[in-house]
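Q: What structure does this chain adopt?
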Amino acid sequence: MKTKMSKYVYGIVKSEKRDSFGKIGIDNNEVYTVHYSDVGAIVSDIAPKYEVKGEAAKIHENVLLKIMKTQAAIPMGFGIIAKNETEIENMLKRAKMKFKNALEKIDHKLQINVKIVWDKSILASVLVESEQIQRLMEKSKESPSQSIRIELGRKVKSALDARKSVYVENIKNSLAQFSDEYEENKIADPDTILNSAFLVDKEKENDFYDKLNELEKKYEKKLVFLVVGPLPLYNFTMLRVIRLDSKVIEEARKNLGLNKEVSISEINSAYDGLIRKYHPDLHSGDGLSEEMFLVAKKSYGVLMKYCEHYLCPLEESNIEDTIMIEDRDS
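A:
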């Protein structure tokens, strides 16, 4: 008996039919689209319970980069596996407008990451240019007390921070001419002064790199530029995949006293009734009522996020077959 294959999901594109991108996927499997209406998921077949390891991450990125050469693609996070095409179609149906809006935003765009760190020569430059720091250094040589060393450290940091502020503002303003927007990435070490992702129109890609080369020359022996791109547009789609927990949905259903299949109006009605019954304004100082009020609010939020259509089936089998897309900051 032939094993039913699961589907590894790479990203989302505009698609009204089954498009094939060749055997470029994990395990050299064909990459193709599963579509609903005019949006499609980029997938390849994968064995059920396949252990997706780190080496597949490069394949994942390469698939997206190849497709990005000809069309906009929303990247999905590494390691997302759907049970079957039906599960993918349901995901596309639920999140169709989110996908279409994101695809419109990133159409003909690419992501370039720019990380900038202090050059080792910068410290010598700061020491030479600041008379205050020079005097403290002399004092430190004459009387190497801890208080002088601490003060010297503070002055050096203050001088570097002042430069950092000016440098970062100038660099961002310069790159803004050739990019639509940027997103700050996490800075994990004190030597990094900038770690940002820039959204760049493909027609301005060379201009963006030319400006970076110009800035590198301008800040030679002060800053070191580390540039990576083009990249899939993870920073600018702001969507994440979540797989629902049937136990959480079931608990929310019971908290609101609902049946296994409900309508949106029934959810709203049950919620309104509980909110009126347990509202803190009616039960000042009543801890139990306050707890019931919060439980009702949380349960309502869970169900409304899941129930996007008028009739909402809350059976476990329906919930477990649902992959949802939500804004990353929600």
